[in-house]
Structures are given as structure tokens and as C-alpha cells.
């Protein structure tokens, strides 16, 4: 199955993570910056002791060597370990990258139990585990990292703020919003946000990316508690500002920005499951705006999000809006792909379903016969062929001409079409579940046609 088609049709609607090479660059940059701070004291707030080995970051020395030499040895070993993990990320082997970091912790923690560098290793493991959607395990590593960093550098260090932020993100991903909010607020204050002191603001001046990340997740915590469209819209400006800050600090393809967008998408999915249509619509529009900030309003990511909005409109009987959204998506995708690309066929498929629901049986039949042929027998995309069968049954019902047919014959043909429609809806429900948006939409239109047949 095409990854983009799977993404567009998936009920979870999680955006794809960043390209692996770009994610690896983000991982490498984060590791280098944080390791330097851990090894030499917290240069950003001036509380460190430099590289003398005499400060709180010192590791115990081995026989015949000073603590500074022991720390250099540990630092070199950890740098090599992180380099190897970066290579694994670049090759797409995230599991192996995490395993390398865990093996390093198993090896070095008994030898250097009080080393601040190990806190950074836990921090990097937490980031990769979050990227793998393993928040429970990520939270464990983030918590160990925070405890070690706070012990060595104090509660007001910018490095401690980084650890608070990572644990806050893990708690957010776990759904523990109250815990997340407390951690994120503390990090945000240290990083120069609200309630910041003049010293913390000065220390954080060189780290706008972390401040934007903390601000983004604080907005996301607030978004998780919103129950009306107005509340969603009220947060959109701040979310966009923070996404812009993340992009400027780390790049559009960074792991941290991709993770933030994925967590926002999780909230969007939760909103779509609510009974309030307005909340779901506002969340999808917000998602389109955020993706537009990252990759441009006519980007593929934004087009996929518009396709999702079109599907949401279709399932909720807002067919004119659905048609407009899917045409916008198709126009953007047409500039990137040939006409037979999966995503453009998918857009024509959705337009065919819209035509079927509107009663334009000729256009629906033409469009859906094409998409059914394209998606039939292609593994997970078989669900699209099943939905095409639903649309074709709807078109068959609409094609019955009440002028040409007698009343008895009309009712017979319509009943046959309804029976076929019901059968196809059940087949789709068995595949993706009765609660899926597409099944609910089809059931809605089945009810409308049943009333016509009476």
C-alpha cells in the first residue's frame, strides 16, 4: 500500500514522521549540544565548572588517572555510541539505535553511576522512543535523565529545563495532561517564557527552539481540554507561532518538529471521535494551517490533510464543502504527481463517493469504476475497493429512472440496489469497524436512500 494513501485513509490520521536522514540530523544536533553542556557544565546559565573535572559533572577516575581523564574517556565512548546510533537512525533502524543506547547504559551506569553524561544518554533514548510511539518507556528514561541532571546542575539550569521538557512531552504522549502541564510550565519558565526571571531569560536567549517546543505542548495541553470550535480556534495563533519557532530552530524535517505534529494529530483524531462536528472541523483546519507553516500551503502534507477534511465533510453530509476540499487537495497534488498516482486516484475516488451521495450517478460510476480497478487486490487498499462498491451501489439506486419504469419495477430495482448497498456496507464494517467514519457516512446515505424507496 502507498504510505500516503494509508496515511490519508487511516482512522488514526497520524502524519508521517520526518524523513529518516533529517530525523537523524536532528538527533545528532540535539545529542551534540546536550552532551557538550553535560560534559562541561551548563554553559548557558554560567553555573558549570568548565572541563576541569572538579565540578558537579565530574565522574570518578580510574586507578592512576584524574577525574578529568576518566570523564574524557567516558565522553569519548559515549560520543562513539551516539555516532553509531545516528548511523542506525539514518539507515532506518530505529529499534537498533535504541538498543545501542540501552546497551551503553547497561555497560556504563555501573562504572560511572554519578555521571551527568549518562543523563544525556537517557535523554536521547527517550527522544527516540517517543519517535517510535513508545511513551511509557520514553517516560522512564526521561525521568532518570531529569533526576540526574537536576542533581548535578540544579533546578534552574537550562539543561534541567531540557529534561523537564522531554519528560513533559512523554507525559503528554501518555495522556497524563496534569503531570505534563506542570513539567512544561516549569521548563517554559526556565527557558524564558511566562514567569521567567531575568537570569533565566538571559540564559535561554540562545535556545528559542526549546522554548517554542515547550510553548507548543502547553498549547496542546490546553487543546486537549477544549470542547468547542471557538476554543480550538483561539489556540491556533499560538500553535502556529510555536511551530514557526520550531521550524526556524531545527528545520522543517527535524525529529522534534515531526514529533510535535504527530502529537497534535493524535488530538485531532480524538476530536473527530467526539459528537461535536464543529470541533472536528476546527481541528482539521488547524492541522492544515500547521502543516502549511511547516511545508507550505500547497505542500503534499497540507494536501493530505485537506483530503482528510473532505472525507470528514463527506461522512457528515456536507457534500458541497467536501467537493471543494477534495478539489483543492487534487490541485496541489497534480503539480507533484502524474495522473495515475495513488493520491490522485484517491482524490478521484472521494469525489466519486461525493457524486454518488449527491445523486450524480453517471459521474460517480465513471470515477468509482476507475478507483475500484486501481485499488482492488492491493492489500490494505482493498478497503478502498470495498468503499467503491458502496458508491457504485448508491449510483445504481440513483440510476433507476422513475419516468421510464413502472412503480412496481422502480421499487424492485431500488430494493435490489439497497440490498447490495447494505451488503457492501457490512463488508466494509467487517474490515475497518462499524465506528469508522467511512462506515458511518455510508450508513447515513443508506438511510437517506431507504426513505426515498418508501
Q: Report strand %.
A: under 5%
| Tertiary shape | elongated
User: How are helices and strands ordered from N to C?
Assistant: HHHHHHHHHHHHHHHHHHHH
Which structural category fits the helices and strands?
Answer: mainly alpha
Tally of strands: 0
Uncertain spans:
11-25, 39-68
Helix fraction, binned, reads over 70%
Helix and strand arrangement:
Layout: H1 3-9, H2 20-40, H3 67-90, H4 94-108, H5 116-131, H6 135-153, H7 158-174, H8 177-190, H9 198-203, H10 208-224, H11 229-250, H12 255-272, H13 277-295, H14 300-315, H15 319-334, H16 342-358, H17 361-375, H18 382-398, H19 407-432, H20 437-453
Please characterize this protein's 3D structure.
By secondary structure, the chain is mostly helical. Among the domains are: about 20-45 and about 65-170, Tetratricopeptide repeat domain (Serine Threonine Protein Phosphatase 5, Tetratricopeptide repeat, Alpha Horseshoe), CATH 1.25.40; about 315-454. It contains 20 helices and no strands. The chain has helices spanning about 5-10, 20-40, 65-90, 95-110, 115-130, 135-155, 160-175, 175-190, 200-205, 210-225, 230-250, 255-270, 275-295, 300-315, 320-335, 340-360, 360-375, 380-400, 405-430, 435-454. Helix 5 (about 115-130) runs parallel beside helix 7 (about 160-175). Mean pLDDT is about 85; it is low at about 10-25 and about 40-70. Keywords: Coiled coil. This is MalT-like TPR region domain-containing protein. InterPro entries: TPR-like_helical_dom_sf.
Amino acid at each position: 500500500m502507498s504510505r500516503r494513501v494509508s496515511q490519508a485513509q487511516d482512522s488514526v490520521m497520524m502524519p508521517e514522521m520526518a524523513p529518516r536522514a533529517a530525523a537523524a540530523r536532528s538527533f545528532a544536533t540535539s545529542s551534540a549540544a546536550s552532551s557538550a553542556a553535560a560534559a562541561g557544565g551548563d554553559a548557558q546559565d554560567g553555573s558549570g565548572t568548565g572541563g576541569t573535572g572538579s565540578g558537579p559533572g565530574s565522574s570518578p577516575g580510574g586507578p592512576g588517572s584524574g577525574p578529568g581523564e576518566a570523564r574524557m574517556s567516558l565522553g569519548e565512548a559515549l560520543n562513539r555510541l551516539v555516532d553509531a546510533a545516528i548511523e542506525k537512525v539514518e539507515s532506518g533502524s530505529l529499534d537498533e539505535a535504541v538498543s545501542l543506547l540501552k546497551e551503553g547504559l547497561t555497560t556504563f551506569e555501573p562504572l560511572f553511576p554519578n555521571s551527568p553524561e549518562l543523563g544525556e544518554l537517557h535523554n536521547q533514548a527517550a527522544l527516540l522512543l517517543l519517535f517510535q510511539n513508545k511513551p511509557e518507556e520514553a517516560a522512564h528514561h526521561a525521568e532518570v535523565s531529569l533526576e540526574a541532571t537536576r542533581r548535578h546542575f540544579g533546578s534552574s539550569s537550562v539543561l534541567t529545563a531540557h529534561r523537564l521538557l522531554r519528560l513533559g512531552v512523554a507525559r503528554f504522549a501518555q495522556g497524563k495532561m496534569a503531570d505534563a502541564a506542570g513539567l512544561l510550565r516549569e521548563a517554559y519558565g526556565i527557558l524564558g517564557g511566562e514567569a521567567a526571571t531575568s537570569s533565566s531569560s538571559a540564559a535561554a536567549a540562545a535556545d528559542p527552539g526549546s522554548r517554542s517546543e515547550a510553548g507548543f505542548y502547553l498549547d496542546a495541553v490546553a487543546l486537549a481540554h477544549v470542547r468547542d470550535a471557538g476554543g480550538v480556534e483561539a489556540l491556533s495563533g499560538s500553535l502556529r507561532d510555536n511551530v514557526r519557532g520550531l521550524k526556524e530552530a531545527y528545520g522543517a524535517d527535524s525529529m522534534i518538529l515531526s514529533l510535535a505534529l504527530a502529537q497534535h494529530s493524535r488530538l485531532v483524531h480524538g476530536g473527530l471521535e467526539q459528537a461535536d462536528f464543529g470541533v472536528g472541523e476546527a481541528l482539521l483546519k488547524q492541522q492544515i494551517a500547521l502543516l502549511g507553516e511547516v511545508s507550505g500551503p500547497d505542500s503534499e502534507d497540507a494536501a493530505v490533510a485537506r483530503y482528510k477534511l473532505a472525507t470528514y465533510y463527506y461522512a457528515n453530509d456536507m457534500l458541497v464543502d467536501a467537493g471543494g476540499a477534495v478539489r483543492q487537495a487534487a490541485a496541489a497534488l497534480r503539480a507533484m504527481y502524474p495522473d495515475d498516482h495513488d493520491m490522485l486516484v484517491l482524490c478521484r475516488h472521494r469525489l466519486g463517493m461525493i457524486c454518488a451521495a449527491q445523486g450524480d450517478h453517471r459521474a460517480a460510476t465513471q470515477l468509482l469504476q476507475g478507483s475500484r480497478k486501481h485499488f482492488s487486490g492491493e492489500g490494505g487498499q482493498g478497503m478502498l475497493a470495498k468503499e467503491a462498491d458502496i458508491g457504485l451501489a448508491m449510483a445504481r439506486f440513483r440510476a433507476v429512472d422513475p419516468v421510464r419504469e413502472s412503480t412496481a419495477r422502480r421499487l424492485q430495482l431500488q430494493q435490489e440496489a439497497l440490498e447490495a448497498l447494505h451488503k457492501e456496507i457490512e463488508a466494509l464494517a467487517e474490515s475497518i469497524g462499524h465506528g469508522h467514519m467511512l462506515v458511518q457516512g455510508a450508513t447515513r446515505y443508506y438511510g437517506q436512500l431507504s426513505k426515498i424507496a418508501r
